[in-house]
Each structure stands twice: as structure tokens, then as C-alpha cells.
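Exam review. A common question shows you a sequence with its C-alpha cells and asks you to describe the fold in words. Practice with the pair below. Do the first one on your own.
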Amino acid sequence: MSVVLRAWRPEDAGVIVEACNDPTTQMYIPTLPAPYTRADALDFIARGEHERAAVDGETGEVLGCVGWMPRGHGVASVGYWVVPAARGRRVATAALELLGAELFKDKMQRLYLEIEAENAASQRVAIAAGYSREGVARGAGERRDGTRYDLAVFSRLADDPAGPAPRPLPDLPDGELTDGVIVLRPLGAGDADVTYNLRILPDVSGRAVVHSPLTPTLMARKCAESASRWLAGERAELTIRRAADDAYLGEIALYYSDPVLREAMIGYSLSPEARGHGYAARAARLVTDWGFEIGMNRMVAGTAGDNEASQRVLAAAGYFREVVQEKRLPGPAGDWIDNVAFAKLRPAAT
């Protein structure tokens, strides 16, 4: 399917009404009227100086919308939506690429996108269209009820190379890692309850590097934004599940702690009933091997000096004890405790 851009026409009003009343579109574009009426669509078309319809180049079917808003000399913000039936067909990516080529030809120098932190699908579109993530604008978005939310900022410059923007942490092969006994899958919004129940356990929260108050609402947001952190290259958070019955066992994460030196850190927690069966060591081996596959040179981990169970996990996963770092970790009582540092090196090429 080829995508082309054209001006909006009055006969497109019905498609616009249907698309703009879609719950997902309404959720992520809170500035849209709700409900969205035909009068709204006709007004949009009349004002459409900076909007383009993305259509099927062969059939003429309207697939979505892409547009821009000038934000100063040589700078514009861009945005898009896709009709529900056309999602997953690379429509938004193609439309962004076409619009970018048009605007850069007209001497535009910088285009940028602001995307809700929970909207990983839209962030994937931006990356595929060559937009690089710049950071997070905290509280820059406003929902219909007046609450604020964070926006991930992506940009593309006129002289950026063609093709998708590089990703420090790629997706998992086939969407998961498994050794036949356990399965690791990306943490998502549906994991909020089990993750919250695990992290509030005293022997889990007490071992956390960052001690911060945790609520179900905050945990739900963290899980919903996990994919965004993965796309940003900050961390890959995964649930650990038993392959036989998909029972939740715990969590493990790869933290990309030092991109310059290609070093990443792992951390993990298991539910009490899952401990003592070798699941944590299996998960550590899977994540560590994946880290080496995507180019890490060193994988590291650390434990408190009295956490002998975690030290046995790391040894079973092939890590070696490097050093004791005095007073490196915040302790549960507000003090500072020693960190026993472990590492595993990238296997030599054969």
C-alpha cells in the first residue's frame, strides 16, 4: 500500500467524525471536541491550511491525518492520527516521512513531536520516521479533567540521516525470552496489580535502591510508561512467568547504566512462593545473554552484603564477585550499606 498526502475535502467529513470520536484518538488528543460533530469536521477542513489527509494512493481511501503548526522561524510541531481500521499498516510513519520531506524542502529546519508518555505506539511511529527522542516535558500535557501528564519529546532536523532513529535497546526477539521453564515478557499496564503487590513486600522494598512511597495509582502509571522507558533506551523491564501455566513469578530489568562503555546492570525480585526454585538465576541468564546479543560488553549487578540468596543467584547465572563498595547503597533504616558488586563479561568471539 502506498500513502499519499492531499488537501482535505468536504466529502471527507464523515471519515473525520468517525476517526475523531474513536476512544483511542480522543484519549491521546484531549483537545478534540467530545463528542466530535460534523460541524467540527467541516470547520477543521475549512481551517486546514496546515493539515493533510493521508490516503491510499491506489484506492483514494482516507487513512489518517498529518499536520504541522509553525513554532517560530524554521521550526514546527507535527502531529497525526490514523483511522482505527488502518492502524498497524505503517500509515502514520509514511505520512510523517512525506510531510517531513515537504517541509524540509520548504526550508524548515526542525520538526518536533510531543507524545504522551504512555502512548508507546505513537512513539514507535516517531522513531520509525527518523525522530530522535530528546527528553520528557514534565506536566506539559493537560487532560480534559485538568490533570497534567508528561510528554515525550521527539525531533527531526533537516540534515538528519534518512531511516529510523537508532534505538539503544531493541525489542526482544519474538517479543519474549524463554528457556522453556520461564518466560520473560515486557512489563505493561496489565501488570500493575501484581507488580505493586510484589514491590510493597518489606523484603523487596527494603532492598530497593530508591526508597519512595508507592501507591497503586503510581504503580499503574509506572507500568503504563514502561514501554516508553524501553524505547528511550533507559531500561528494559520484564515480568517473569512460569512457562507451563503463565503464573506470575516476579520481575527483572536491564538498566542501561553506561552506554559509552556498553555496560548494563540487572536487578530482579521474586514473589515469596517463587523463591528457591532457580527461577531468578534462569531469568538472570536470559537477560544477560540478551544483553550480550545486543552489544553489551559488561553486565553488572549488586547486592547488599547480607543478601546471600541474591549472591547465589548471580553466581548461578555466571557472574563473578568483583569488589565490595563501601557505603554505596541506601539502607532501609536510612543508613548506608556496602554493595557487593558482581560482573559478567561478554564472551570472546569464536
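Now try the second one, then compare your answer with the model answer below.
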Amino acid sequence: MSISILLTPSQFQDAVLVRDNCTCVICKQPGAKVVHLLDKALWSDGGFYRENGATVCLEHDLAFKRTTLSVEEVRKAAGISTVLLPEHLSVDHKYDCYGNQFIANGQRLRGDFFERPDVQMHLGEGGFLGDFSLAVSCPSTPHLPWSEGVQRDDKQMRRQDLANFIGKEVIASEKRDGENNTLYREMLHARSISGRHHPSRDWLKNFWNSFRYDIPQGYRICGEGLWARHSIPYSFGKDGVFFEGFSMWDDTNRCLSWDETMLYFELLGIKPVPVLYRGIFDEDVIKKLYDPKRDYDKSEGYVIRLAEGFHYSQFRQSVCKYVRKNHVQTDKHWMHSEIVPNI
């Protein structure tokens, strides 16, 4: 059978059993279950690829669910050389079978389905719930079908994926050219949670310290750190505010509605990103929000989100972006260049 062909559930079951000779790939005892190496809920298409499946006995099925048996161990035992991942996961990272990412200190980040009851149960049985970081990585936003700034590793929405926006109220905000940051009561971090210190973040740390204890326990704020210039220059003034928020998440990993978010931002003294449009999703109206001739030197594009709240697992169906063509205008990454403040 050809590699990486999407199968029906019954074809998937049969193909994996035939490849594994109906035996557990770990202990070679009679196989009892066919497991998805990466949970089928992580895949927009169900993940029924032969290379995403393996045959295991009941003992090793339980060990796999508890994550005491890793995805890599099962993949190697099954002789699978191709690493297939759901479109929102990265080949640069390692994940458990539920899509929770391992980070450099040995902990894991809470993925889309961390709170799912069966995941909580199995991770608890494996003794791993205490090994998860409080940090939650801000998901990468998929590009709209008409976005011009799609790069090789970027994810782009299919036109049919826009169905979740049809007939719903959306918020379209300017896509700011800054650094993605997440702020909690206990800590703050950039998109790369284990990233090293950079002096451009000093202003943000001082700003965060002025209200951090007013952030509810378990909540987090996502926004753009804008103190250091990237490709687009901003002029905020010497005493300006160099952070603009775009979302707030509660202790159940739910993104608050835009109105709830604005109430919290007002209480905490956080400036929101500029809003370009609020109303029912209208593709023609939204496409006119950015004109390369008018906006190229002052804006990267725009981001659309549902005005209503949504769970972390629904992010890719609830937020998307348009990015201008050739949006990166510097030869070196901004962190390795001379720091120029946006004052």
C-alpha cells in the first residue's frame, strides 16, 4: 500500500494489522488493539494513515495511553520510518500521543486535549500530571486562503475551513509586527517558552510587574511586545505603552469573548491591538481591510477571530490571518540585529 494514503477506519485497521502480522510491535504477543500514534482528534482528517498506526497487546496499549511508552518507541518498533504529524504540530518538537509537547527541561506543555477526561485519567495513572508546565504555548495562527505572506512552514486554511466564520460576528484587528508574548500571574514568556533572555523584553517585565497580581489565578494574556523594532517602525514615544493585547484565556483553557477580554484589559490597563472591523463575517469587506498600496509600509496585515469565546482546541477554526507579501524586510532575525526602540 502506498505511503501516507488516508484510509477509511476499517482500511486503517486492516492495513496496520497486516503490516504488523497481527502481533504486538513491542512484545510480539498476539495483538489486541490498533492505536493511533498521534490521537485521531488531533487530525482534521482523522489521521487514518497506516504510518500513524501500530498494533499492541492490552498491556502495551495501556502503557501507551499512560505515555510510559512513547510515540517514538512504538514507531520504531513498528518499523515506521516516516514521521507523520497533524498540520499544526512541528517536526522540530517531540510530542506524546495526545499532542502534548515536550520541552527542554523535561516537562510538557498542555496541548489541545490536555483537559479531556480520558487524557487526564491516563496521565494521572502514569503519574505525569505533575510534570506539566503551567505555561501554554500560543498556537500558530493559520493563514487565510488569500494571504500573500505564506512561507514554507506556515499553515494555510482551506476555503472550506472558513465555514466556522460564516454568519458569525468577527473581530478583525491589525497584525502588529512585534514579538508574541504570554503573561500569567506567575510568569511571562515569548512564543518559544524555553527561549533565552533578550534585553528588548525588559520593558515588558516592568510593565507586567505593575499588574501581574491582578491577573486571576490560572488566566493568561496574549499580545504583542512592541518595544523593539522588527520590519515595521512604530512611534509610541519615550513614555509609550509597548504591549498590545489580543486575547485572554481562563483557567479552563478557554479564550474569552472579545467583550469579556476588553473588560479585563480595561481593568488591568492593557491596550488592545487596533480593531479594523467588527461585524458579521463578510469576505469582500474583510479583503478590503488591507491595501498593499496604502498599507504596506505601516502594517503586516490583519487577524480575524470570532467575537465569541472558544476553547484552545478550537483555535485553528476560530482565528486566522492575512499577511502581506514579503512581510519580513530584514536580512537577519531581529533578535540578532541592533536593537532599535519604537519610540
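Model answer, second protein: Residues 9-19 form the longest helix (11 residues). Residues 59 and 193 are 35 Å apart (CA to CA). Full marks require stating both points clearly.
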